Amino acid sequence: MTALEFEFEMSGANFSLSASAKLDAPVTGVFGPSGAGKSTFLNCLAGLARPTSGYIRIGDELVFDSKTNHFTPPHQRGVGFVFQDRRLFPHLNVKSNLRFANRAAASESKLKEVADLFELAPLLDRRPATLSGGEQQRVALARALLSNPRILLLDEPLVGLDHALRAQIIPYLKRLREATGVPLLYVSHDLSEILQQTRQLLLIESGRTTASGDLLSLVQSGKITHGNLDNVLPLKLDHHDTEAGLSLLATKSKTQIAGSLVAAEPGQQLHVGLRPEDIVLALDRVDAISTRNQLPGEVRTLINEGARVLALVDVGVELLVEVSPSAVQELDLKAGRQVVCLFKANALRYLDSLPAAK
Amino acid sequence: MTIALTPAEWEALALSLKVAACSLALVFVPGIAAGWFLARRNFPGKVLVEALVHAPLVLPPVVMGYALLFTLGRHGFLSEALFDSDLRLAFTWKAAALASTVMGFPLMVRAVRLAIELVDLKLEQAAATLGASPWRVFRTVTLPLALPGVVTGSLLAFARSLGEFGATITFAGNLPGETRTLPLALFTELQAPGGEGPAMRLAVISIVISLAALVASELIARRIARRLGRSE
Known about the structure:
Oligomer: heterodimer
Number of helices of chain A: 8
Number of helices of chain B: 10
CATH topology of chain B: MetI-like fold
Structural class of chain B: mainly alpha
Distance between the termini of chain B: 43 Å
Shape of chain B: globular
Order of helices and strands of chain A: EEEHEEEEHHHEHEHEEHEEEEEEEEHEE
């Protein structure tokens, strides 16, 4: 079933938004630069703003239709909304904030279950003002989930959190995804942050939704024109080599990758970022070279963006590699060509855990 | 000059408190409703409604008293139309309460309105996305967060009632035991020869009650501020 389908226009005094798409992935990343209209888009979905024309369908229910002048008010939409600024009620403690959402269900066991999921038990009697940013975000996530939504909107959930706090929140986002089965819309201006959650994207640019679909298809059709592309790899930590100062990680297909030392236990799953411009292509293995990683693979396709070319290389996982047009000619790059991807160990960026203290 | 109050002065004091309490009760709900309406709703003619609500602040109180007499007096046009000219309101203590209510209403509305305007609309939106109906949002988010303004408004309306003179004497008269509140009693004493002593006592009582109300509302407001988790 399609989780969300819409086609609407909204025009105000100094902005306009035109949006249309059909989304059915468990998690859809809504990606666009600041000021592109992402907030207006979310407000329209939640019923906090009324589009000028068009329709919005959530699940099998039409919540807005300008033809029949139908508008379901926000409190009857079942759209959970985790706001960028969290919006916890300052006059209520954490428990009452959670109860506010859970009133209809009124089951204490459900409340306890969700509080446990986000590890909120020690915070229940505290006031929001006394919580850290990360704790507030966990309360906001739990509260939105307790309202029993049919769809959940996360607006820049990591904004305003420093690296350490992000690392704390990301596992909870994963739990949210796995525990609930509620379709998620994850909104961010940071593509690599989205790619940790999903590769299904909806793009918004200067007031319109420009495309939706899988990351690779969007890259191939040249639709992603803004933001830094990133390879986000789910890897498993194999072991540490403290003498060499390296941590060794493996892809699902057992390809080994070396990164700088990371504070994590062997066996742990980690998200790792690797920028396309940090990878070098060679036709053969290079023996005397300082880069720790040399992964053999096959070029799947080339995406020509004019000033740069993106090569999609399968090394057991698919990597986007940035090369210059002249390199494409010299190395005779084309689909099917065997190449080696070279990158330094410290080009790997650990996205959900901290690098080990030196 | 003795400290003890005469029976007539006790009467004036009790009447003043009764009138002030009644007018506060009358102004409370409509004042909050009007304050919310002006803070959260836009409609054509809003400026006109605002001017009407605030009129008692700027008009001479005697004019307000006259307006009440004109509409709700024994032969007022509203009394004739609504109550078959059988309304015996003017020149009773209820008239004094009503005069105070009309004079205190804009103070209550103003305080509530300012407090509600300070309540973050975003919190109300968040409450709606959590499934709360507009009425529940008002009860559980807007009103609790605007409570300091409600307390301030109540104090202002109460104090206005204790001090109300012009509208009361015009609409309710100056009848001992019925409509002679503290300010009216004080005025009456000053008119009589040798009334300076009693007048001074009444003035002191007025000051004491007003200050007590002010301190009480300040204490309540602080408790609320603590409950709202704000620093003082």
